[in-house]
Each structure stands twice: as structure tokens, then as C-alpha cells.
Amino acid sequence: MSNEVQKVFMSQKQRLLYLSSQSTDPKSPAISQALHEPLKGTIVEIDPTKKGIDYESVHDAICDGWRVVHFPDQRGSLEGSEVEIYGYQFILEKMEEYVD
Amino acid sequence: MINVFGKEQMLSDTNHLLSDDQIADFVINGYHIVAPQFQSDFHERVYQELNDLPTNPGDEINKAVPKIDDVYEHPAVHGALTSLLGSDYKRAAHRHCHKNHPGTRSQTWHQDSLNIPTLADGHGRVSDHVQSVLAMYYPQAVTEKMGPTALIPGSHLFTASTDRNASNGNFRDQVVAVVPAGSVLILHYDIWHAGTANTSDQVRYMVKYLFERANESAEPSWNHDPAKDRHIFERLEQDEAAAMQRSLVSKRNYRRTTMWNNIAGKAALKYEYRDKWSGDWPKPNL
């Protein structure tokens, strides 16, 4: 398929990156990540072959072109909560061209 | 002489009991690995017998493949379980064989469910005690492509919501059970774990038994040396397991110490104030 023809079948889709950080500071170390690709049938899987995660921090991901679309709740910590969640979750997006 | 699953059995020696540092490792990380020694083809034969099962026998897996009981009754496994749960620990009725085919996808992070509808708090987590453990036996070597069990060290100290955890993929400090054939991975019941994707061309088996504490400890059921108390206290206060937010660290340390004390009986650690901040001045930032 030529580049011109390929462009006809391409559309912008949203990639989502969930990054949990040690604090609400985007420069604090990231604890976990999950990449949601805009492709049917894909799921977020734990990759046992991977050492570490892709970004050191949310800021590191921003420098790589990701855009924050959800910031963690700043209204209070979860210290008194019965459910204890690791990290403060940021959700980032990157719009990219995909072939339909 | 002790009673193990209805059989009188002599503990060979105290070498199969865990040390203070191994118990501290378990309290801090929530897991311990045992490698019981058997004849070279033992685990291969177990694997074959599992492979020959026409259906999943559920809790009856030990009747379908009796050799599996030999693994859990091995002195090395028994010594570790005694150390963690007391010498009169019990084997629970629930057992399960997980058959992980090539192409099986990853689970999401979870704590195993207790499925007891009468629990008032709905989950029954015990974040400051060792009341029950999961013991996972792998009859074949597990490579990182065969869907190894992944776990988050130290997460047994916290109550998680599986729904909330569904948006997590890889954790920076996760560990995966890439283990030799015959390994038994003993986990605190509340540890966050998941079976990962099997991208190999081999079936991976994991047999899970559940063991429970019968009574509170009057004294440590492991090889305890009171002279190490200070060292253990410092480890429980300082050792890192997996990175987390600062607001959980004090809760984590409190639960570690409480967990140790709950299983140590009269040998509980006593808190004494000490000055941790004296010493060299910080160096200037040049």
C-alpha cells in the first residue's frame, strides 16, 4: 500500500497510559504503569519479561509527548480508608494515527 | 514428635525451620520459596499425571494425584509452614490445580477471595498476622514466558480492591516466580498476585494448597535467637519491599511489627526509642 493510499485508511486514535506515582507531584517516581492501546481485542497484561516500567515519572512521560488527561484527587489522602491503593494515578493520552 | 495431617512424624532436625531473618523476609515481602528435594524424575511424573487428568478434580486434586501430598508433607515444606503458622497448623479443605495453557492471558492483580458471606467486613483480611498461607507447587520449571505468578512484595500488608487494581499493569518492583521444577512458593494469603500470560508452547501447572493457623503462638515456632531482636526491629522499620506512597509507610511498618509480634508470642519485640539522626553532618551540595 502506498503512503497516499494508506493515509486514506488512517484515523487518529487515543492511546491511554495509566501511571501511578509515589505522590501527586508529577516528578515523583512512578510505581506502576498500564498502557491501553486503541486496538480491538487488546488487554492490559502484566508482562513478566519486562524489567521495570517505561517511564521514571509522569514528567518523564510528558517529555516523551504524553498529555495528562486526569490528575489524582488532591482532596485528601487514603490513610483512613479501608481500601489501600498503591500510588496516585495519573492518566495520560497520546493521539496517534492508526490504520483502520 | 508432631502430628502432620493425621500422621505422627518426627522433625528431622531444626534445620528445616526458618531463621529470624527468613521470618523477617516473609513479614516484609509476604513470600518464601522452598525447594524440597525429591528423586530426579519425581516432578516430571507429577506433571505427567496432571496432564493425564481428564477433568479438573478441584479440591480432590490430592486424591487424583496423591504424590502432591508428598510435596506438602516434605520436611522442608513442613518446616517452613510450622515456622509461619505454628506446629499445629491445619491444611484447609480448598485445593486447586491451575492449568495454564499456551496463549492464556494475564490475570489482573488481585488478593484471593475468601468467599465467606458471613464475614462482617466483607473481606476478612488480616494485615497484621499470619493466619493463613497459600502454598503454590510448580511441578515443572517455570520460565518468564510460561505465565509465572507475579506478585508485589509487601502488598500483603494492605487491603486492595481488585476493581481499583484493574487499571494497573506492570509494577516497578513486581517479582515473578521464575522457578526450578519442584519449587513451593509460600505466600501470605493477602498478597496481591496474578497469573501472567503464557506465551510459551508448554502447559504450565501450578497446584495450590491453603494452610491455616490453628492457635495463637505462645512462642516463636522457628529458630529464634533473641540476640537478633534489635537487628530484626531495624529491618522491619527500614527494609524496602516495593515502592509506595509515603503516607502508607508508617502503616506498613506498624503492621510489620505487629505481624512479627503476633506470631512470636512471648518473644514479641519491644519498642525502645533510639536516636537515629546523630552522626555526620550532611555534605555540602557542590
Give a brief outline of the structure.
The complex is a heterodimer of chains A (100) and B (286). Chain A has 100 residues and is mainly beta.
Q: Can you describe what's shown?
A:
The complex is a heterodimer of chains A (100) and B (286). With 100 residues, chain A is mainly beta. Chain A has two helices and four strands. Chain A has one domain. By secondary structure, chain B is an alpha+beta fold. Chain B has a single domain, classed as Jelly Rolls (Sandwich), CATH 2.60.120. In chain B, 26% of the residues lie in helices and 18% in strands. In chain B, the strands form three sheets. In chain B, strands 3-9-5-11-4 form a five-stranded antiparallel β-sheet. Chain B has a three-stranded antiparallel β-sheet with strand order 8-6-10, with no helix packed on it. The chains are: A mainly beta (100), B alpha+beta (286). β2 of chain A pairs antiparallel with β7 of chain B, so a sheet runs across the interface.
Shape of chain B: globular
User: Percent of residues of chain B in beta strands?
Assistant: 15-25%
Q: What is the strand tally of chain B? A: 11
CATH fold category name of chain B:
Jelly Rolls
Helix count of chain A equals: 2
General shape of chain A = elongated
% residues in beta strands of chain A: 35-45%
Order of helices and strands of chain A: HEEHEE
Low-confidence stretches of chain B: 1-13
Helix content of chain A: 10-25%
